[in-house]
Write a structure and sequence with these properties.
single chain; 476 residues; alpha+beta; 16 strands; ATP-binding; nucleotide-binding; ATP binding; protein biosynthesis
Length: 476
């Protein structure tokens, strides 16, 4: 029996505003507990919320980035429910008139074809506090997160596999990073994901939708979706059905566990928030937001391919973050060799940056120093192997490339007469390798090249070595 999987996502994304959504408290992760909260955060009697305009700007920017319509007139609503980390016993959110609606993100499906995943809505709301559970089983509450601005992004159930859901999340995260409306750090709770999943049998019978809450990594989301997809299919094969419920993912046991029956909209008793005025945007506001919107990843990727004549794979790596893309373009202003710059950024630079866990702006050398190193390689002053040695020292000490090359005597030997002497010595010392090469064993030629480079201490120009080696072998 064949099954189709239906997956929809609800993504909560904290916005990187300086202050919270309804008060002047600092919006900052990692502060001492309960030091960034006030009567408004805590919902104390008489404390009135005032909507932060920057929240509207960031939310509208995210909406435009995801091809949404922006509501020029909307409002805030009160969502009522009790939970220990929600001191007011209600959350200020949006219900029937979200700020953004009817958008989409274009992804690649499992076959590599383009597919549009529709976004139903993006609305703004306040975050809740955080429950902290200690080893003795007690629960403490940190209200610093109360009132941190969120956008909730809700999709239609357009994803038909866990892999498609991951592709969507990666694209969403990448786009949000480029807009800089959020740092999307899942380990800090800046991005959290709920997944809704059910399956449809080919005869039309479908399982009930299950929601898996508060997944704090893409890996957890993928595993939870794969688990639920399999569980739903097995239930239908046994003639049973899933319950319409909310579940959580257990990272240790790699299973989902039932938490409660799924709430309906009526359970929240929504009504218009009486303490916040209605939201009315104008053309000047929207023009400002459009001007703030940067070049987005897909557009930048296409421009990199056409402008710099680099492969699609290179363009994808180089546009994986705004910082990497900017670094590449800044270096390209200093040296006109896109393939060389692309290769070195993707291999040596990003590898070391990732290994050390640092950001590009923390490098000990400047961009013009990096460009100068690549210029030395491109011009043949040093070979690629020597370039790697120079780069390692630049990375560790911050010294300039020219200084390191001079200190270590790494200037490449270009003199054909000098190289020819070394090549002749190696050829005369390795008659068996010459014979093997003539008998079609290409490895023998690579061995001979290696011996010449070793004898020259890595300084001989490899192109000249290859040319002379072939000429001398053919003359024998």
């Amino acid at each position: 029996m064949k099954y189709n999987t239906l997956i929809g996502l609800e993504i909560h994304c904290e916005l990187s505003t300086n202050t919270k959504i309804f008060c002047g408290c600092k919006n900052e992760f990692g502060a001492d507990v309960n030091t960034h909260c006030c009567p408004v955060c805590l919902g104390l009697p008489g404390a009135l919320p005032v909507l932060n305009e920057k929240v509207l700007e960031f939310a509208a920017m995210a909406g435009l980035a995801f091809n949404c319509d922006i509501a020029m007139n909307s409002k805030m609503d009160r969502k009522n429910y009790f939970y220990p980390d929600l001191p007011k016993a209600y959350q200020i959110s949006q219900y029937d008139i979200p700020l953004c609606s009817d958008g989409y993100i274009e992804i690649k499906d499992e076959e590599g074809d383009s597919k549009k995943i529709r976004i139903q809505r993006i609305h703004i709301e306040e975050d809740t506090g955080k429950s902290l559970h200690d080893v003795e089983g007690d629960t403490l509450l940190d209200y610093n997160r109360c009132g941190v601005p969120l956008i909730e992004i809700v999709t239609y159930p357009d994803m038909s596999s866990p892999v498609e859901a991951m592709n969507f999340l990666e694209k969403l995260k990448e786009t949000l990073l480029f807009t800089e409306v959020s740092d999307v750090k899942m380990e800090q709770g800046s991005l959290r994901c709920d997944v809704n999943v059910n399956v449809v049998r080919e005869d039309g019978v479908r399982s009930k939708i299950v929601e898996v809450k508060n997944l704090n990594s893409f890996k957890a989301a993928l595993k939870a979706l794969e688990y639920e997809e399999k569980r739903h299919r097995e239930l239908l094969e046994k003639g049973e059905d899933s319950k319409k419920e909310t579940r959580r993912w257990d990272d240790v046991k790699n299973v989902t566990i039932s938490m409660r029956s799924k709430e309906s909209v009526d359970d929240y008793r929504y009504f218009p928030e009486p303490d916040v005025v209605d939201i009315k945007l104008d053309d000047a506001f929207m023009d400002r937001v459009k001007d703030m919107l940067p070049e987005l990843p897909d557009t930048k990727r296409e421009r990199f391919i056409s402008t710099y004549d680099i492969p699609e794979y290179d363009a994808k790596v180089l546009t994986s973050s705004k910082e990497i893309a900017s670094y590449f373009e800044d270096v390209m202003k200093l040296i006109d060799n896109s393939k060389l710059v692309s290769n070195w950024i993707m291999t040596e630079l990003l590898r070391r940056v990732n290994d050390e866990g640092i950001e590009l702006d923390e490098l000990k050398f400047a961009k013009d120093d990096f460009a100068k190193l690549l210029e030395f390689i491109s011009s043949g002053k040093i070979n690629n192997s020597a370039g790697k040695k120079v780069f390692r020292e630049m990375f560790e000490t911050g010294k300039k490339a020219e200084e390191i090359i001079k200190e270590k005597g790494l200037v490449q030997v270009q003199d054909e007469g000098e190289i020819k002497k070394i090549v002749e010595e190696i050829v005369n010392a390795n008659p068996q390798s010459i014979e093997d090469y003539k008998n079609g064993k290409d490895r023998a030629f690579g061995f001979l090249v290696g011996q010449v480079m070793k004898a020259s201490k890595g300084k001989a120009n490899p192109q000249i070595v290859n040319k002379l080696l072939k000429e001398i072998i053919e003359s024998k």
